[in-house]
Amino acid sequence: MLNLLIIDDDIKHTDDLLNYISQNDTQLRLHYIVNTLSKGIDILNKGTIDLVLIKTKDIIDEILFKLHCISNCFFEKYKKSMIILSDNSNNLRPDFFVYCYFNYTEDISTIFLKLNEIAIQKNCKASNSVLISKINTELEYIGYNLSYVGTKYLSEIISIIYYNNNITDNLNKNIYPIIAKKYNKTLNNIKCNISIATECMFYECDETRLKQYFNLYTTIKPKPKLVISTILNKILMYN
Description:
Blueprint: E1 2-7, H1 11-22, E2 28-34, H2 37-44, E3 51-55, H3 60-67, E4 82-86, E5 98-103, H4 108-141, H5 149-162, H6 171-183, H7 187-204, H8 207-214, H9 224-238
Parallel strand pairs: 1-2, 1-3, 3-4, 4-5
């Protein structure tokens, strides 16, 4: 469940939204309701909030300035985590914190859907962060250097395959192009960097560990496809 902070001095509006949330399946949990931005910022600085709904008549630029004074240790946590309801939601500039702006008169159901959309994105991001951490632990265990760009590519490739039903049949066609497009690199560049990282892993990894991890009879350098499928199977087994 994601903790929701509502900053709103309109009790009826808040009650209507809470009733709508309670009647619908969601990952949202009301954590605090406050009636001023300053009280809301005090709560944000505790780091216990995931999503924020701000209904205000104040000047938007003044609100954004105050939000940007939030303690740096929680700054990244609130990226695109806020919906601001204003009497002037047109032509407002994009902001680090703001997911979207709405007009005061916006329907409660629309606001709820946007809050839920943010919740889904945050949950996916959190899940992927945990998965990447597990993948990197495995890569490091067998000797991959996490500072190598090829190792980073491998980690992301395993993550992509994990979320796409463990399909590793054609890396060149289905997987490598995704990474190449993301980083604006050629397919050969992606493969070359992975190969360099794997070559270094082979010389760093203890011979016994290498054989046991990949179930090898002889000491040979595993191909990226074997590395990917082996790590993927181990993570699936652990889960």
